[in-house]
């Protein structure tokens, strides 16, 4: 369905050599070196070319969830559209961090209960939110495919506009319930380990949330056989569009900076659909949501940051951008031993003991 090309490994030894010959002990820039290598594999046709992050853009996908009416969040669904209005007004955490880091921000309505009439919101809705997943399928298979098509158009527009780094975040009351259910169905990891407190529910609500997820898994048991069916039965439409965004970005050769738990679940669905996608993903942080650590392990991902965030919106991804820019800057601009006239420690001279 998606033709994602594997990243280019043919330059690996030259890229390693370029990194190793910079004026530092071997490996001393740690994870920044890994990030530079990942970007180089995606972007470069010659190891001596420069990396570039052009028009980094945060896409925040907003959607409502039928299951939010069943006491699984501290808030009601009305907060989703209220927060989207806050995004448009520039007052949310994600606005502050995007401004701080010169990141463009775009908000996509993936079906909120309340439709906001504002041309700055990208309309990719097919209704007012999903159905309650423990009673019926959250959406149809057709809706999932439509969500992927919306996402592909969105990505194509940004790529045509010169963007070569996308970040994904979300807003949707109840979406840690949907995400935990999708994670459990995709991985077989027990529900209790996939489910957390989301916005900060108490222990009673957490129990209810787990029971509802178990009910949903039971309700759709015979259909949970592939990622598309799993997304249709259990997903949110914002999760579907994040999955579609990752698939399309990888297809266009654009890396994606992934935010927290919900965005990472979308990433897992994308990787299950097209494994080559994995090499285009950069996991910005490990959130405090129970399940995120297990999920990142499953994705074989080392998150860039661990800040105890539990917000979503794309905040962790926006905060990680400067580190990614630092990886690019050192790869492009740091002097080599030869250029700087510093004695190389790449191939250390073995002291033979001779006088
Ligand atoms: C005021 C407010 C702002 C938010 N911004 C992001 N989220 C986060 O919380 C929601 C997921 O948690 P749950 O599954 O418990 O509802 C998502 O909207 C997520 O982005 C927010 C939540 C609230 C209440
Ligand atoms: O990890 C996340 O993305 C997250 C955690 C809690 C609430 N909202 C989002």
TrEMBL record:
Documented EC number(s): 2.4.2.21
Superkingdom classification of source: Bacteria
Coiled coil: none
Keyword Membrane listed: no
Pathway: Nucleoside biosynthesis; alpha-ribazole biosynthesis; alpha-ribazole from 5,6-dimethylbenzimidazole: step 1/2
Keywords from the named record: Cobalamin biosynthesis, Glycosyltransferase, Transferase
Reaction(s) catalysed (UniProt annotation): 5,6-dimethylbenzimidazole + nicotinate beta-D-ribonucleotide = alpha-ribazole 5'-phosphate + nicotinate + H(+)
Pfam families with a match to the protein in the record: DBI_PRT
Active site (catalytic residues): 313
GO MF, one annotated term: nicotinate-nucleotide-dimethylbenzimidazole phosphoribosyltransferase activity
Protein's job: Catalyzes the synthesis of alpha-ribazole-5'-phosphate from nicotinate mononucleotide (NAMN) and 5,6-dimethylbenzimidazole (DMB).
UniProt family annotation: Belongs to the CobT family.
Protein name as annotated: Nicotinate-nucleotide--dimethylbenzimidazole phosphoribosyltransferase
Phylogenetic lineage: Bacteria, Pseudomonadati, Pseudomonadota, Gammaproteobacteria, Alteromonadales
Name of encoding gene: cobT
